[in-house]
Specification:
Helices cover about 20% and strands about 30% of the residues. It is built from eight helices and 17 strands.
Length: about 325
């Protein structure tokens, strides 16, 4: 049986949640549930953001019935979905895509592929960008190969803000600045090396700002005995860029077993006791121009609680 749709025309500008509560006559809880179940469309585009701005004349459509399949996974949270894109928040420890052809390991890609095929057996998802396994945060996937190609080709033009937060070792002498170097990857050990001069590698640029510092004496830190919560903005998107750049200036990301001191047994034990035995890097903000609607979409997640715990002074 086909789901019934009810269409409303916006008479006065408002945010979507207020409109649903007032025009439709429902509670805040029920309005949020409609959005979470992706039963609400604005001008033909499915939206789930409760603060989506509405203008006079906009068409809001509500589908009644059971709605689409829901995504339930402890390592992946659905943030946004429409007919063209899916935005998710990935937890640390989950690969973005399979590490090898034919791999059966659970990834963000495999979870989303199964999710969309519950709604349409021929549907697919296509990787636009990736996060390292141990990095948490926001990821966007396309629903067609054509859109994937477009977003990859024009990624730097359509992304208007991409912000990470990290907990780094030590206290920075310069509280804000730019790290600029050239990267070369050694395929034999999958390590990326940074050079301050152009050695023929790929240019990598990271802007940073220290948000908070603390002398956390409960951790055996090798770098001035402190920690820094750092906000980072990428101008380029090189492999392991933030991890390599912070390590290159003597402030590796806490828990980085590849470029930092994550293998230090004393530090690892202390982190485990604090329940933060992870790479402390999180893709917190993602803002981009929708390649189909041309609207600017802004997504933001909080600083992980484990980062806040580490930054607490003792």
């Amino acid at each position: 049986m086909k789901n019934k749709e009810t269409e409303y025309t916006v008479r006065v500008a408002a945010d979507l949640l207020s409109f649903l509560m007032n025009a439709v006559g429902t509670t805040r809880t029920n309005a949020k549930r409609l959005l979470q179940r992706r039963l609400v469309s604005v001008n033909g585009v499915v939206v789930s953001q409760f603060d989506t701005p509405l203008q006079t004349g906009d068409k809001v459509t509500i589908r009644n019935g059971q709605g689409a399949a829901e995504l339930h996974h402890p390592k992946l949270r659905l943030v946004y979905e429409d007919d063209h894109l899916i935005v998710v928040e990935k937890k640390n420890g989950l690969l973005s895509v399979p590490s090898a052809v034919g791999s059966s390991e659970t990834t963000a890609y495999s979870i989303l592929r199964a999710y969309v095929r519950k709604q349409n057996a021929r549907a697919g998802v296509f990787v636009v960008h990736r996060l390292d396994r141990e990095t948490s945060g926001l990821l966007v996937f396309a629903k067609s190969a054509e859109l994937q190609h477009y977003m990859r080709e024009y990624w730097r033009q359509i992304v208007t803000c991409r912000t990470y937060v990290a907990v780094a070792e030590g206290v920075f002498d310069k509280k804000q600045g730019q790290i600029r170097s050239w990267f070369t990857e050694d395929k034999r050990n999958a390590m990326v090396y940074s050079s301050p001069v152009d050695d023929g590698g790929d240019l990598a640029i990271t802007n940073y700002e220290v948000l908070k510092e603390t002398a956390n004496t409960s951790l055996p830190l090798p770098n001035k005995g402190g920690l820094s919560l750092v906000e980072l903005h990428l101008e380029t998107g090189r492999t392991n860029q933030i991890r390599v750049h912070l390590a290159s200036i003597g402030h590796p990301v806490i828990g980085d077993r590849k470029y930092g001191h994550g293998n230090d047994t004393v530090l690892a034990k202390a982190l485990l006791q604090k329940k933060t035995d992870r790479l402390c890097l999180h893709a917190r903000v993602l803002e981009f121009i929708h390649p189909v609607t041309e609207q600017t979409l802004h997504f933001e997640t909080p600083v992980p609680k484990s980062f806040v715990s580490l930054m607490a002074e003792h």
